Amino acid sequence: MSKFTIECVGFTPYQRNTLRGFATIRLPELKLVIHDITIHQHDSGSRWASMPSKPLIDKSGIAKRGPAGKIEYAQLFEFEGRETRDAFSAAVVRAVLAFDPTAFTEPVTA
User: Fold this and answer.
1) pLDDT at 27
2) In what order do the strands lie in the sheet with 7-16?
3) Is residue 27 exposed (0-12), middle (13-18) or buried (19+ Cβ within 10 Å)?
4) What's the domain range around 24?
5) Residues 54, 92: Cα–Cα separation, whole Å
6) pLDDT, mean of each 10-residue run, the chain (110 residues)
7) Residues with Cβ < 8 Å from 95, sequence gap 6 or more?
8) Which of 1, 20, 87, 100 has the lowest tally of Cβ within 10 angstroms?
């Protein structure tokens, strides 16, 4: 598997539940920029990045909600395997920390 450089070129802090903010990531070898990657941290200290998604919309134009009342989202991008997804997530978290070392420490009110 070839490896790509992952650079964070922007980070907007936003805290809500596990969400810590939104990152813009650049993969120079692919000439690709991905906006709105969500950056998360669990109370246990685990950190991860999730690809952008969009809310599912019903026929009347209202966001669909699951049994718990939370909005349901559709994936826009998907890795073919957990190992690749986890490696990308870890690389994005490292890139965000290189861009903004306070990304997981600065309290931001949502």
Assistant:
1) 96
2) 7-16, 19-27, 32-41, 47-50
3) middle
4) 7-51+77-99
5) 20
6) 85 94 96 96 93 93 92 92 94 97 75
7) 6, 7, 8, 23, 25
8) 1
Helix (H) or strand (E) holding 93: helix 82-99
The CATH number that applies at residue 82 is 3.30.1120
- Predicted confidence at residue 1, as pLDDT, reads 44
Let me know if residue 63 belongs to a domain: no
In a domain, 26, yes or no: yes
Provide the pLDDT for residue 36.
Answer: 96
Cα–Cα dist 85/81, whole Å: 6
Domain count, the chain: 1
Is 44 contained in some domain? yes
Give CA–CA dist 46/25, Å, rounded. 20
- In a domain, residue 28? The reply is yes
